[in-house]
Amino acid sequence: MKESTINNLLNFDKDHIWHPYTSMKEPLPVYLVESADGALLKLGSGEELIDGMSSWWCVIHGYNNPRLNQALRDQVDKMAHVMFGGITHIPAIELSKKLIRMTPIGLERVFFADSGSVSVEVAIKMALQYSISRGRVSRNKVATISGGYHGDTWHAMSVCDPVGGMHSLYNGRLPIQYFAPRPTVEFGAEWCDDDFSPMKKLIYEHHEELAAVIVEPIVQGAGGMWMYHPEYLKKLSALCTSYDILLIVDEIATGFGRTGKMFASEWSGVVPDIMCVGKAITGGYMSFAATLATAKVADVISSGDPSEIMHGPTFMANPLACAVANESLAMLEEASPLLRIKEIESIMRDELSKAEGCTNIKNIRVLGAIGVLETHSPVDMARCQEEFVKRGVWVRPFGRLIYIMPQYIITNDQLIKLCRALVAVANIDDVFKK
Ligand code: PMP
After folding, report:
1. Which of 279, 285, 403, 408 is catalytic?
2. pLDDT of 172 strictly over 90
3. Is residue 247 within a helix (H) or strand (E), and if so which, with residue range?
4. What is the CATH number of the domain that holds 246?
5. Binding site membership of 151 for ligand 1 (Cβ less than 6 Å)
6. Is residue 358 a part of any domain in this protein?
7. Domain span at residue 354?
8. Cα→Cα distances 272→142, 177, 214, 246, 264, Å
9. CA dist., res. 56 & res. 403, Å (int)
10. Best probe residue, ligand 1, of 252, 263, 398 (max atoms within 8 Å of C-beta)
């Protein structure tokens, strides 16, 4: 593309289009991507960047994947969309069967949502309605752990980190929920029972008010890329059961292999009452998610008054999304991605450990296909990205986190180049804010 064409497009974009979490005044720079293939993003200028972000966790099988493309083509010739009220279709039925088969045993009732945030809203509605149906109306709050992120819609925001999230902006307006401190025992470290004490105390003191506890299992993503000990989740599940509080796990980022298990809850051997899945479900082709519940949760809600679940978006179970998700999950079931994720983990461990001793780095952590360099100072995102693009990679750090979650199809050479760029950029002092 000609430089003048690119500049015209970027100028229009800057003047008229909001990007995620940006201001319309002095927005951060954006790069024009013209196409993408496999693990490569192709810029309008002709440069190719190795993708380190999987477009925020979801493009696990690569861009422009022939099988996913074909699944969409086949479906679009049959039916792109049809309402789900009073109608059903094979893509939704097939996808439900796959989700029930792949998720921990016991999650057997499926609600299709149009985004991760919406699936969290639905999960919370389910939990509140479960309490109402059982006549326990005082149980109308949700507990969680600090440092979490569950999306940008209203109830999802109410359980995001109370400091780093948007609580201060919407102070006094968001529903008040209960927060325990973030678990401190890291994944792989020696477990210490004290780590669970604050959550234990919180549940003991407030169980009469709690409909549910919601957590991101094992890895807290956008709220801090923190990886905690599986014993925490195990204890949480047992305590929730003993107080008859529903456990909601948000597997939107961690699901479909990302942490080295098909679902991160499996690290703890936990079967939640409600599970949210999204992002990689469609291989990153389109916005789609699902909320799965146990038969018990569904039965209680459906025995209440009203007995209906009060949610039903226009694009619920969109056939195109279901078709591409069916193909994405079929690829996961056929290809043992967990072996590939182990290889990715091992390469990232070797390569990122080269940042040890770098004065800008506070902590290095790797789990499954997630690699994190935690820094002492916050990054200057625009400066940092400039350096990454110069090195032919696409990484979008935030706060004190430079991190990657590569696609499962990335080649070893591409992955090594990506990790080396991370280490190189982490060594440049002026990519950090003073
Ligand atoms: N939960 C988690 C754990 C997430 O990482 C995200 C997205 N980053 C969401 C919920 C919200 O999903 P969506 O952006 O599809 O609404």
Report:
1. 279
2. no
3. strand 246-250
4. 3.40.640.10
5. yes
6. yes
7. 31-60+337-431
8. 15, 20, 10, 8, 11
9. 11
10. 252
* pLDDT one-digit tens code per residue, 344-359: 999 999 999 999 999 9
- What is the pTM for the complete model shown? 0.97
**Ligand 1 close to Cβ of residue 250 (< 6 A):** yes
- Describe the chain by its helix, strand, coil percentages, rounded to 5: 40, 20, 40
In a domain? residue 15: no
386-412: per-residue pLDDT in tens?
999 999 999 999 999 999 999 999 999
In terms of domains, do 329 and 342 share one? no
Closest by CA to 282, choosing from 77, 69, 38, is 69
Contact 274, 297 (CB under 8 A): yes
Both 402 and 294 in one domain: the answer is no
Q: Does one domain contain both 284 and 359? A: no
Q: Which residue blocks in 364-410 are alpha helix, DSSP H? A: 381-390
With a 6 A CB cut-off, is 224 part of the ligand 1 pocket?
A: no
Tell me how far the alpha carbon of residue 276 lies from the centroid of ligand 1, in angstroms. 10
Can you tell me the mean pLDDT for 121-138? 96
Tell me how far the alpha carbon of residue 117 lies from the centroid of ligand 1, in angstroms: 6
Position 3 in a domain? no
Would residue 21 count as lying in a domain? Answer: no
Boundary residue ending a domain (282, 306, 334): 334
Domain CATH number, residue 42: 3.90.1150.10
Same domain, 130 and 160: yes
For residue 315, the CA-to-ligand 1 centroid distance in Å is 18
Return the percentage of the chain with pLDDT > 90, whole number. 95
Average pLDDT estimate for 25-32: 93
